[in-house]
Amino acid sequence: MKEFELKYGCNPNQKPASIYMHDGSDLPITILNGRPGYINFLDALNSWQLVRELKEATGMCAVTSFKHVSPTSAAVGKILPDTLKKACFVDDIPELDDSPLACAYARARGTDRMCSFGDWVALSDICDVTTAKLIAREVSDGVIAPGYTDEALAILKTKRKGSYNVVAIDPDFVPDTREHKQVYGITFEQGRNNFKIGEHLLENIVTANKELPESAKIDLIISLITLKYTQSNSVCFAYDGQAIGVGAGQQSRIHCTRLAGTKADTWFLRQHPKVLALPFRDDLGRPNRDNVIDGYINGNEEDVCADGIWQNYFTMQPQPLTGEEKKSFLASFDGVALGSDAFFPFSDNIKRAKASGVKYIAEPGGSIRDDQVIAQCDQWGMVMAFTGMRLFHH
Fold first, then answer.
1. Of these residues, 165, 233, 291, 349, which one is catalytic?
2. Are 363 and 343 in contact (CB under 8 A)?
3. Given 40, 46, 55, 67, which residue is catalytic?
4. What single string gives the DSSP state of each residue in 257-285?
5. What is the DSSP pairing of strand 234-239 with strand 242-248?
């Protein structure tokens, strides 16, 4: 297939729209089901690069959940603890531990379930049955993978009344080293960002504490590769093999850190015993449960525990999760990793990171206040590596 005509571009008024290879060669993708749109393909092709690079860097299968051209999370195929299985709504899948790919999907899709509503999924490996079953029961726009087993593809083809978007990509495809895009009729050209992310980027440790365990290296690599495909400015928190908070597209670095930290806190608090024990009504669907859990943790639009409101969601009135309970529970977590796509200009980012259990940091370095940032890390015994590599993505 040399060209695929799209229904429209980013918006319905943007016609005509299509995808094709600049050199006239065949597209490296096969559409196995559905009819993906313009934004679908932006998500698909960016997300595929992320999981391909993550697998190459870690040696583990990888999955990411994308929404509006940024990842909500990314994860590698590590078995989930029982509490996390329950928090991610996958504790009813006894065969989960037998599929590293399904474990990676459960982690990536379960990290920020509100942002992943209607997501695009990328799988580094051939989609198996367990992974397909998990995808099939979530609200999602499509999936891209290097292949699908026959049974997995049959399951996915039943999703969304048969219209679910399923795309296969040639894993051996190598894109041109130069990229082009147009803005206001003007063509931009640049070399592709082919910089390899791996443990070598973590060798320049600038803090007094230089103890960087293998698990932290993996988490920092996950955060950096996630940032490579996140709209800048961006900061990513990672823990136990997955990105747990992505702060994307903020103009201020501290706002990136606050946003990512708040998402990381919510991810941890989803595993609080009070949250896991919430007495949901049987007729409350998974997306609504996500909204209610977020409201229960963060107290957003309504008090879900209040009289006249709790009856909409629960079989009995739950006790609120108090500020002191949240603070105490979050304090029990340590060893969180943080990556930043550009240098930290002020030490306030380190202070906010510390509040979410961050101990390991990777950032480019190069700020005129690097000494202040390092001193703040040293005050709390953090480990920080200067990568020397900026990861802006637009």
1. 233
2. yes
3. 67
4. HHHHHHHHHHHHHTTSHHHHT--B-TT--
5. antiparallel
Residue 365 tokens, joined: 């370095």
Tally the residues of the chain.
Answer: 394
Domain residue ranges of the chain, discontinuous segments joined by +: 3-174, 197-269+330-386, 274-320
pLDDT tens digits along 314-342: 999 999 999 999 999 999 999 999 999 99
Q: 248 and 231 in contact (C-beta within 8 Å)?
A: yes
What tokens were used for 14?
A: 């943007």
**Segments in 145-269 forming alpha helices (H):** 150-157, 214-228, 253-269
Residue type, 152: A
Per-residue pLDDT band for 311 (boundaries 50, 70, 90) equals very high
Whether the CB-CB separation of 8 and 38 falls below 8 Å is answered with yes
CA angle, 334 then 339 then 345, to 5°: 110
Active site residue 67: yes
Q: At CA 369, angle to CA 367 and CA 373, rounded to 5?
A: 100
**Model pLDDT for residues 140-162, shown as the tens digit of each residue:** 999 999 999 999 999 999 999 99
Q: What is the pLDDT of residue 301?
A: 84
Is 68 among the residues known to form the active site? yes
Q: Which of 2, 161, 200, 394 is catalytic?
A: 394
Return d(Cα 46, Cα 192) in angstroms, integer. Answer: 12
| CATH number given to 197-269+330-386 | 3.40.140.20
d(CA 105, CA 101): 6
What does CATH list as the number for 3-174? 3.40.140.20
H/E run at residue 378? helix 370-379
Confidence (pLDDT) at 336 = 98
Taking the CA atoms of 290, 288, 47 and 134 in sequence, report the sign of the dihedral they define: positive
Closest CA to 256 of 265, 247, 245, 243: 247
Q: What is the pLDDT of residues 78-104, one digit of tens each?
A: 999 999 999 999 999 999 999 999 999
